[in-house]
Amino acid sequence: MASLDVSELKKNAKIEIDGHPFVVVDFQFVKPGKGQGLYKCKIKNMLTGAVIDRTWRSGEKFEPANVETKKMQYLYNSGDAFTFMDNLSYEQVEMQADLVGDDKWFLLDNLEVEVLFYNNRPVGVALPSHVIMEVVESEPGVKGDTATNVTKQAKVQTGYAVAVPLFIKVGERIKIDTRTGDYIERVNS
Amino acid sequence: MLAFGERVRLWDQALTTVRAHLRARGLAEVTTDLRREEVALEPWIEPVASGTAWLVTSPELALKLLVMRGAGPIFQLAHVWRAGERGLWHRPEFRLVEWYRPGAAITALQDDVESLMAALIEALSPWAPTRVAPPRWRSEAWLDLFAATTGVALDGDESPEVLAAAVRGTAISSWPPPPAGDDEMRGLWSWSALFSAWSDACLDPWLAERAAAGEAVHLVEFPPALAALSRCDRDGAGRGVARRFESHAFGRELCNGYDELRDAAEQRRRFAAVAAMREAAGQPAIGLPEGFLAALRDPGLPECVGAALGLERLVACAVGAARLDEVSLEP
C-alpha cells in the first residue's frame, strides 16, 4: 500500500508500525511558525489494546494498516478456534482462541459482532457494549438478606462467572457489560 | 465558549480596532493579490497550489514590492494558506496582519505589537469571560535563552556535526541528520531541526511559565541560519546574528518581525537553500521567485522593517481563550 504523509494523519486513522496495526486515538498538531511541525499522537495497538505515545515530524511518512471490520455472526467454537459467518456472503472464517481472548465469555451463539481483519486475517472481535445472558447456575439467595450491595456468584451459558445480586435466580436473564465484565441489571422477559 | 452572535460582534470589534490602531500609528491599509505566480520559500511552510499559481503563505513579497515603489508605511489584513497546519492553535487558512515601516528600527515593530495587543485586550474586554491583563514585555536573545534553558552555549555558526555533538545527551538530542548537499542547505536543515526540537522541549514550557507570571517575550537575535528574510550582522559579542524577532504572549507565538534583507544575491542563496532542502526531503519543487529577486536588485528595497502577526491567535489570546475555535466564526 502507498505510504501516506504524516499531515494526512487524523483521529481514527489506522496505521501500521513494526508489523502491528494501530489506531490513532488522540492527535495534537504543534508547530513553531518557522520550525518543523510535530504530530503528537496517542495510538492504540489494535491487537493488544495497549495505548502508547508517538510523535511524528512533518514530512515523515507512515504506512496505512490494511485493516477492515466486517459484521459477522458467531457460530460455534471447537475449543481452540472460533467460527464466524459473514452476514452478507455467508462465508465462514475461523479465529484462533488466543486472539479471541476473554471475549469468548460473551460470545453467545448467533451473536452479531464486528470482526477485525488485518492483512485479510481475522485478528479480533468487537463486541456489542453489553450482552444478555441466561443464568444457568447459582446458589439460591438467603431468605431475609435484603442488603443491596451483597452479591453471589452466578454462571451463565458460556461458563462465565459473574457477581450478581442475591435476588437473581437460575433461568433469569441478565445484562452484562462486555468491557468491564460486570453485571448491569436483570432483564424481564 | 461565547455564543455565535457574540463571536460575530467580537470579530467586528477586533477588525475595527486593529485597523484603527495601525492607522493611528501612521500605517496606510493596502490590499494585494493573494493568488500569485511567486511565493517565498521557507522551511516547513508548505504553500497551497491554485492551478498554476500559489495561494500566498504571507503577503510579504507583494507588500515589499509596494514598498520598493515608494508606498511608505503600509499594512494589510491578509488571508493566507499553509497546507497541513491544523490544530488547537493552527488553521490551514488564517489571517495575518502584516505591516512594513521603511526607515524605522526593528524596535518600532515591537512597540506596534505591544500597543496593538494592549488595545485589543481593552477593546475586546466585554467578551473576555475573566479579565485579561496586558502582559509585561521583555526581550531575550535566542542564543542566551537557548543556553539558559539547555545548559548548552552556542555561537550560532556551528556546523551540523558540531551542533549535533553539542546537544548530545540533552532533551533535544534527536533529530534527523541533514542529507548530503551544500553547507548552506545542511546548516539550514540542522538549525531549523534544532529550533523545532528546542521549541517543543524547552522554549514552549519556558514561555508557558513566563505567561503564568504575566510576562510576554520578544525572542530576538536569531542564529544566522534561521534568518529567513531578515538581515544578518554581528551582536555586541561579535557573534553573527539575524535581526529578527518572534513575539510570544500568553504562551503563544503571535508575531514575526524582520529588519528586512535587501541583498538580492544573499536572498537568492537563502531561497535556493530552502529549495535544496525541499528536494532532499522529497517535497515537490517550488520555483524561486525570480520576479521578486529581480526587483530586489533593481529598484531595490529601501531600508525597512516588517512584521506579520496571526490575527486569530491575537484575538483568542486577548479574550483569554484556550484554543482558536473558541472565538472563530467557522469550524
Protein model, in words:
The complex is a heterodimer of chains A (189) and B (331). With 189 residues, chain A is an all-beta fold. Chain A is built from one helix and 16 strands. In chain A, strand 13 (151-156) and strand 14 (161-165) form a beta hairpin. Chain A is elongated. The termini of chain A are far apart. The radius of gyration of chain B is 20 Å and the shape is globular. In chain B, strands 1, 5, 6, 7, 8, 9, 10, 11 and 12 form a nine-stranded mixed sheet that branches. Helices cover 39% and strands 21% of the residues of chain B. At the A-B interface, strand 3 of A face helix 6 of B.
Task: Give the strand content of chain A.
Answer: over 45%
Tally of helical runs of chain B: 9
Quaternary? heterodimer
CATH topology of the largest domain in chain A: SH3 type barrels
Q: What's the story with the biggest beta sheet of chain B?
A: 9 strands, mixed
How many beta-strand runs of chain A? 16
The total strand number of chain B stands at: 12
Q: Radius of gyration of chain B in whole Å, from Cα?
A: 20 Å
Mean pLDDT of chain B: 95
What is the strand content of chain B?
A: 15-25%
Could you list the spans of chain B in which at least 5 consecutive residues all have pLDDT below 50?
none
Largest sheet of chain A: 6 strands, antiparallel
How far apart lie the N and C ends of chain B?
13 Å
Instruction: Assign the CATH class of the largest domain in chain A.
Output: Mainly Beta
Task: Please work out how many helical segments of chain A DSSP would assign.
Answer: 1
Helix content bin of chain B? 25-40%
Low-confidence stretches of chain A: none
Write the topology of this structure.
The complex is a heterodimer of chains A (189) and B (331).
Chain A: E1 4-5, E2 14-17, E3 20-30, E4 38-45, E5 51-57, E6 61-64, E7 67-77, E8 81-86, E9 92-96, H1 97-100, E10 112-118, E11 121-126, E12 130-138, E13 151-156, E14 161-165, E15 173-177, E16 183-187
Antiparallel strand pairs in A: 1-6, 2-3, 2-6, 3-4, 4-5, 7-8, 7-10, 8-9, 10-11, 12-13, 12-15, 13-14, 15-16
Chain B: H1 4-24, E1 28-29, E2 35-36, E3 48-50, E4 53-55, H2 60-68, E5 74-81, E6 93-102, H3 106-123, E7 136-141, H4 142-150, H5 160-166, H6 183-212, E8 215-222, E9 232-234, E10 240-249, E11 252-259, H7 264-280, H8 290-300, E12 304-310, H9 311-318
Parallel strand pairs in B: 1-5, 7-8
Antiparallel strand pairs in B: 2-4, 3-4, 5-6, 6-12, 8-10, 9-10, 10-11, 11-12
